[in-house]
């Protein structure tokens, strides 16, 4: 999963190469640094219970950040994921409690698997709306997803008139029980949500490296015109990344409401910013074309461990925000420095050769 | 090179090199600018003239080398820095603010202000009017620039540069949009500036113009300076020889194979222009297997647009195309590539390559489906194809996993060609395949074209280089103003006939009409 940090600079005799290698491994170094720091500074940090708890926190952001990574690699942005999380939680909660009233005296209740599938479909659908706005109507990604951010949040609030759907245990006679498994269940000692993360992450990393679609995602972000002339179906690629981002957000919506056994319409506010932060920290370039799933996951872990560790140390949440912001800025500054160093090394070599 | 006593060297470039990602634009150039004289700089497209001038004007910084002004070494941190040292430039692409008035443009960044920092509009307009008067252009200083004709805008740009009161004035193709009468006025202004001791650096493609007003001439070829002389010692032949090089171009020889059956036909291709009229005007042509059909035309003749139409890049294009006699009804680029069409675009950086991906990823980008089982890319098969292409096209790369932007221009071009070939095309469209690459790579590209045609590929290639089209084509089509204006067999083609056909539909040299 750590394919980017493991990719070492091409061997070169120049003195810049050691520095370059360190810079390329920066996210990994940061992860080790926060792990070491907190295991010394915060008691109980390294206990199994705490590590699992932290992993569950991180998983939520990691799902969103993976979807975000593909979107950003194509040169776009998806601001709507936080709202999709909220709306999908509400959809799941509504279906568990109320089912669908057919208006002819009957109400259909779905079992938990069906509810999960419907919720995922809603997430993908909103992603598809984003994709259509961007590819067919030529709306800038920032604006299109800002619009769906508001629309989805509004729909979530409308679905319950702003109230929480409480107590989603379901009724055995309707077959709607078992919703808590996603958030609280365990498999081989690990939380189910972690297993889902592993499966989705492996799938996404495989997609990025070994399928034509993955290659096309990078090509579209690197040079959309050239990709089009090479026969890449640019619109289809963009549709996919926004739909995948919606799918990831729907998973998060399901997991959160399942953990709490309740869905609240304001769930997921500002999650999109954490997702972007994790992607950027993991080496995804906001200008498109660069990024890896492995890097993003490491980035999500750095951010997650940082905030949980600071909580355990009793640092005020105001300071936490300051520190998180600084880490993101430093990450991008180092990223820029690495690019400059790299291009200077290449140019000097070419000037010598030419 | 001997110097006249009254023409002191004011600016000297020593051993200047400028490297961009992927290309070396200027190589070890030495260049002197003399006071009170017109210093002419010529060279073919992409020879590095504009880059050299941008270095002098402080827009670009050299990768290596020294700049000496009045004998002192200097380095400009910005174009403002260069302006403050008395260097002004008329850019080839107009650098004007369309939403501001002529006077505001002329005084942009050095506005005339009163004691309270308020802009003195009246004063600016009065001063601007004086400069415009010199140019006899009939432009009022309070007009908005976007309301002016292109030629008039160019005159405003010139007025702006003159108003700088510069000691060195660089003019990059100042006459490209001017009418004959306007050119005369410009020359008068240049003569006045010369008399005042201003050093003028003059870049143009029009040889007759250069010979008329130049005092010194410097010729650039492929980023190197190949000749430097006083103008009175040279003639047109000398200039052309320095520009093209005595080594001539290494065109691969025809091998005398006979083209086969028709492989491609286009009928009545039309493409409307945004500004009205047709960019491609009812063009029909046919191509046989193993044939190289050269399409010659000046800039803006519609060659690239024709290729774009054939590849299905314009939804509003009309006309029919056939491959092996069967009509191609598919409209998307993806489907047309599957039917056997492939394009090597003119602009390598913008349309040919994904510069941040590796050489290998670029090579297989258009043909990934060949290496896929179900949805998995078979790494081995892909690597094999990449290595084979690298060998066949002699792409100089240590490791195909290297970023494509680290290659030289010629090798990048080979990657673009390789990408097209991996799709297994029947018809190859090459738009200016030799632009901006060095002599050796050019020869490789031409050899590859010969070999492909021998293998039975039909090749359509567009160029604005007369030698190239004469040497490589089995047949020559000429385009002008979107129309096909000539079709010659190689045996009957003469340079004069081709040039005449390429000028059909153009009026006398009135820039506004050409736009």
Number of helices of chain A: 15
The percentage helix of chain A is over 70%
Order of strands across the main sheet of chain B:
6-7-8-3-9-10
What is the distance, rounded to the nearest whole angstrom, between the alpha carbons of the first and last residues of chain B? 40 Å
Q: How many distinct beta strands of chain A?
A: 4
In the CATH hierarchy, what is the class of chain A? Mainly Alpha
Helical fraction of chain B equals: 25-40%
Give, in order, the helices and strands of chain A.
HHHHHEEHHHEEHHHHHHH
The overall number of domains of chain B is 2
Strand content of chain B: 25-35%
Strand count, sense and barrel status of the largest sheet of chain A are: 2 strands, antiparallel
- Helix/strand-derived category of chain B reads alpha/beta
End-to-end separation of chain A in angstroms reads: 39 Å
Summarize the structure in words.
The complex is a heterodimer of chains A (354) and B (515). Chain A is an all-alpha fold and 354 residues long. Chain A has a single domain, classed as ABC transporter involved in vitamin B12 uptake, BtuC (Orthogonal Bundle). Chain A contains 15 helices and four strands. In chain A, the strands form two sheets. Chain A has a two-stranded antiparallel ribbon. The longest helix of chain A has 37 residues, at 317-353. Chain A starts with a helix and ends with a helix. Chain B is of the alpha/beta class. Chain B folds into two domains: 9-244, P-loop containing nucleotide triphosphate hydrolases (Rossmann fold, 3-Layer(aba) Sandwich), CATH 3.40.50; 262-354 and 425-514, Rossmann fold. In chain B, the strands form five sheets. Chain B has a six-stranded mixed β-sheet, sandwiched between helices. Chain B has a six-stranded mixed β-sheet with strand order 16-19-20-13-21-22, sandwiched between helices. Chain B has a four-stranded antiparallel β-sheet with strand order 2-1-4-5, covered by helices on one side. In chain B, helix 15 (439-454) links the parallel strand 19 (427-431) and strand 20 (458-463). In chain B, helix 14 (409-422) packs parallel to helix 15 (439-454). Chain B is globular. Chain B starts with 8 loop residues before the first strand and ends with a helix. At the A-B interface, helix 10, helix 11 and helix 15 of A face helix 10, helix 11 and strand 18 of B.
